[in-house]
């Protein structure tokens, strides 16, 4: 009987020493954020303004690859100045016909920056939005291409050209989707 117990103890000890709990493999994640600005918040019709778009990857994240940012110029408010896109930091190409910036990759704690110019065409308040629309890895706090204003991979900037009001004029004003108040 003692032999059987010792045999079981030895067998269990052997099993216990070879069967190690394995932790699941770490999943590579990124944390991209987008910030936009416009050079002149109150231009005149005909002025050339410069948009700056920054896309950054947070510290301690994997290198983001396959990053694509879409910049939605206000079609009636401005006209893109051909050939004006300039990648200031990082790499990539801007396709003006689609408004997409193929950024490529962004290391952890790094960023890419692009600027481009547009000519102001009309009076009013004009919004420019920029959003990460694709990346090869999952983002820890946002989903690409969902136009969610509270996520950090989406940003909006605006400029305004005063509207001239005359007696008898009527205007329809709309607030873009996702905004719930005016100031």
Report on this structure.
This protein has about 180 residues and is mainly beta. The protein has one domain (about 30-160): Sandwich (Immunoglobulin-like), CATH 2.60.40.740. The chain contains one helix and ten strands. It has one helix at about 1-20, and strands at about 30-40, 50-55, 65-70, 80, 85-90, 95, 100-105, 110-120, 125-135, 155-160. The strands form two sheets. Strands 1, 2, 4, 5 and 8 form a five-stranded antiparallel β-sheet that branches. Strand 6 (about 95) and strand 7 (about 100-105) form a beta hairpin. The chain is globular, with a radius of gyration of 26 Å. The N and C termini lie far apart (about 85 Å). About 25% of the residues are buried. The model is unreliable at about 1-15 (pLDDT under 50).
What's the structural blueprint in terms of helices and strands?
Blueprint: H1 2-18, E1 32-38, E2 48-57, E3 64-72, E4 78-80, E5 86-89, E6 93-95, E7 100-106, E8 110-120, E9 124-134, E10 154-161
Antiparallel strand pairs: 1-2, 2-8, 3-7, 3-9, 4-8, 5-8, 6-7, 9-10
Search tags:
single chain; 183 residues; mainly beta; Immunoglobulin-like; five-stranded antiparallel sheet; 1 helix; 9% helix; 40% strand; globular; disordered N terminus
- The beta-strand count equals 10
CATH class: Mainly Beta
Annotation field: number of helices: 1
Percent of residues in helices comes to: under 10%
How many separate domains make up the residues? 1
Provide the succession of SSEs.
HEEEEEEEEEE
Q: Which band does the percent of strand residues land in?
A: 35-45%
Rounded Rg: 26 Å
Instruction: Tell me about the largest β-sheet.
Output: 5 strands, antiparallel
Per the principal axes of the C-alpha atoms, what is the gross shape? globular
What is the typical, i.e. mean, pLDDT?
A: 87
Q: Span between N and C termini?
A: 86 Å
The computed structural class is mainly beta
CATH topology title: Immunoglobulin-like
Based on the structure given, which CATH architecture is correct? Sandwich
């Amino acid at each position: 009987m003692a032999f059987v117990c010792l045999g079981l103890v030895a067998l269990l000890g052997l099993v216990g020493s070879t069967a190690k709990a394995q932790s699941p493999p770490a999943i590579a994640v990124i944390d991209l954020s987008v910030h936009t600005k416009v050079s002149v918040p109150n231009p005149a019709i005909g002025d050339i303004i410069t948009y700056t778009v920054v896309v950054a990857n947070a510290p301690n994240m994997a290198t983001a690859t396959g990053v694509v940012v879409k910049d939605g110029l206000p079609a009636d408010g401005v006209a893109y100045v051909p050939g004006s896109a300039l990648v200031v930091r990082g790499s990539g190409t801007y396709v003006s016909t689609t408004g997409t910036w193929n950024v490529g990759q962004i290391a952890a704690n790094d960023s890419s920056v692009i600027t481009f110019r547009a000519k102001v065409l009309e009076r009013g308040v004009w919004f420019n939005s920029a959003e990460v629309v694709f990346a090869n890895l999952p983002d820890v706090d946002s989903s690409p291409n969902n136009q969610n204003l509270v996520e950090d991979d989406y940003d909006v900037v605006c400029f305004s050209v005063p509207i001239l009001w005359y007696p008898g004029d009527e205007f329809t004003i709309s607030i873009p989707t996702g905004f719930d108040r005016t100031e």
